[in-house]
Amino acid sequence: MFFTYNTMKLKLSKKIIENYPELKIGIVIAENISNYGEITPELLQIKTKSIKNLQELYTLETLSQDTRIKDWKETYRSFGAKPKKHTPTAEAIIKRALKEGDIPTINPIVNCYLIAELDYFLPCGGYDLENVNNDIELRYSKGNEEFIPLGAKTIEKTYEGEIIYSDSLNILTRRWNYKDCDYTKITPKTKNLALFIESPTKASEIFLEDQTKRTSELIRNFCGGSVKYFVIDMSKNEYELI
Prior knowledge:
By secondary structure, the chain is α+β, with helices and mostly antiparallel strands. Helix content is 35%, strand content 22%.
């Protein structure tokens, strides 16, 4: 059975819908999971295989020509972010895997979605639902909104026109999917979460369904609980999450 919540929605601002009509978002909702403990040998083996496949298919030079990487760089530029200074998240983790032959071992959930990111190249991030206040919204920032990054205590301020995820009290993610906040981070104590996987153009969307499904399967296999996934488009301005 799913954990009992009040209804929670993902809301899309009118300007987001107008400016990114091809945007699709894969959503994974996982509840009553177990995220505590070490990464299992089987999950480590899957991670190693994904990195090996990546290294066989790509170099740092050829990676930059991939449609999914180029799409997100251009998307960052569209709202004033500089991809050379703020590398899109999927590109950053893939480059790390290519350079170092490994990615961070954080906790089972995070490693599940990072593995899927290595396989399909679309950014994924999310939130511990116990710490989300009311609905989640993807919108433009009015500027000067306070944000505390993951693992930090210093407050940052958003710039006007920056794309953010927010709830009714906090900025959850800056620069669309570049940096998550500390308050809703996924930890070993997390029991209920939402993940968002994003494709900004039709050229990238062919990978979205597969990555969303793969992410949900890995979580179900290694963290248990109840897991569902679905993909949304810009045909409506809000979608029910739970």
